[in-house]
Amino acid sequence: MSKKYYITTPIYYPSGKFHIGTAYTTVLADTLKRYRTLRGYDTYLLTGTDEHGQKIQNKAQELGKTPKEYVDEMAQMAKDLWKLMDINYDQFIRTTDEKHEKVVQKIFDKFMESGDIYKGEYKGLYCVPCETFFTETQLVDGKCPDCGREVIPMKEEAYFFKMSKYADRLLKYYEENPDFIKPSYRKTEMINNFIKPGLEDLCVSRTSFDWGIKVLKDPKHVVYVWLDALTNYITALGYMSDNEELFNKYWPADLQIVGKDIARFHLIYWPIFLMALDLPIPKTIFVHNWITMKDGKMSKSKGNVVYPELLISRYGLDATKYFLLKEMPSSTDGVFSPEEFVERFNFDLCNDLGNLLNRTISMVNKYFEGKVPKYKGIVNDVDKDLEDFTISQIKKVEDTIEELEISLTLQEIWAIISRTNKYIDETMPWAQAKEENKEKLESTMYHLIENLRKIAILLKPFMSDTSDNMLKQLGIKEENLKTWESLNKYDQIDNVKVIEKGKPLFMRLDAEEEINYIKNGMKK
Ligand code: MSP
Predict the structure, then answer these.
(1) Domain ranges, residue 445
(2) pLDDT tens, 57-73?
């Protein structure tokens, strides 16, 4: 039986069109799902929308809509974008789904019964856009420490969750499970900034608005959005419903991906809620950084927002995904700039990858009428070096994916592409073609085709269409030549004929024209 792999993205606040930064989490999750599927796992990817709370109620009102009308439109917008981006999710959960709402009520009830939730009075400061309460000391310059906006004083009867009761257990869990938080510096941040100074009990209900899930036993209260939202990861699987099949199969999650701004909710509150429910904790929560612009955060008012549609419609989905995944290091924010986008397109995709395929296909046609010669082992002096290098790179690709260092993964794949390009310069097939004995040329062509086949497979999770296109041009039809397992050997291609005339994978861009195109698109 294949091993299961459950991946989640955060559920999105439907507050307008998604920009490339917001799309990043989901692109990453989809890529990792594709990788695990290729490695034989039974995968399940969950995404969705986070539809309750004061922010949404206010926004709908502003637009003269009911909250439900507003979130219906927004959920559809999210689904349309994921379709355009070919995101292979298995379920799209909405927190307004009845099955979710019912279970959140049951969970709240359970916490009341167990004494984890008690009634009190909340006096404090609230940031409406972030839906978060703060104490005076947590503010930065008197403003919200997360978004920098004004906070408002608030006093109301409220329910509280006893976070403090679980602090020691959480610390112990961190310590005993080094893979729980990646990268590990996020763990240090949580401990030093939030847990060591003392975990305060969390306010988990509101009474001043009603767009939320009502507390069953006290319906003037609605459940705090983060308690509502976080539980989506289990309600989606049918937890506490009359069909827990998915839950039994997939929980605990293998990988939950979140952006740095919501790390605290996922690394502290979420495991604590799970402990209170007596459920296993996810194996890994991965916190990624942000995609920013040279002049800081993307914002409509700065006119520097890049929407995925702008890039996809002109440069294709694969180029857009490549850029996003490549430009996000694990230690700092990634930066989007039109200049860098066009450069990566022209250098990495057109020159390095596209030309390698094109040159190889035309040489196999020219020298062997398209028929890929048989493998003869090590013939050229550099064959062994190419083989050893490639095999060791494949291991690095696997290791970096395991560590979720995806930008590095792409670097490792591109190192194979560069090494293969260099192999052409070293072997000089045009000179080998002049020799009477064609053995060397045969070996060169075989190695080039075999490396391109490997590159196509390695790229499959990242750039699926490009990978398929490459395999098609290479004439690789057999399914067993498209598997990850087939990467580690060099002698498997037999009786393959490449396409007669190769088609460029990516057309070179006019840098100036395209930089202007993107810049103009950002202003719209
Ligand atoms: N609704 C909450 C999540 C609840 S999960 C139980 C939320 N939604 S969000 O729409 O505001 O953000 C969704 C994801 O997009 C988050 O992981 C957030 O970090 C990510 N990003 C938003 N802007 C981003 C960038 N500029 N760059 C990368 N990721 C960004 O938070």
Answers:
(1) 316-488
(2) 999 999 999 999 999 99
